[in-house]
Each structure stands twice: as structure tokens, then as C-alpha cells.
Amino acid sequence: MRAAESVEDETADNATPRSDLGLRIVAPFIQSMQGEVMARLDAIAIEDLCQRARAEGVECGEQSHADFTI
Questions:
Q1: How far apart are CA 44 and CA 17, in angstroms?
Q2: 16-34 pLDDT, tens per residue?
């Protein structure tokens, strides 16, 4: 998540709030939510998600085998 976040988005200028409500209320609210989401992501590993998937019976593709034709 952090790696994807570090990539510059060419459309970022279009998302800048222009109203007082957007600048003072909406943008800080969104930033606080983003901080909470990032904290939760920092606290979990990919293996944790895989274990949850296995516990729920989600097919993770572990059985598939690559088939390459050259």
C-alpha cells in the first residue's frame, strides 16, 4: 500500500479541494481516515490475510500450476 501511495499521480491536482468546506472539513477528515487505514495495514501481514482466507475456505490458487508455452 505504501509503495503504491509513493507513486506520483498525474491527476492529483484535480483532486485538490477548492471550497472552504473542502479545505477545512472534508480534506482533514479524509486524511484522518487514511491515517487509520494505514495504521491497520501496518499492523497486518500478508500471511495474516492468507490465514484468514484459508480459515474461511477461500480458494487462494495454491493448487494452480503455471503452464508456459515457448
A1: 32
A2: 667 888 888 888 888 899 9
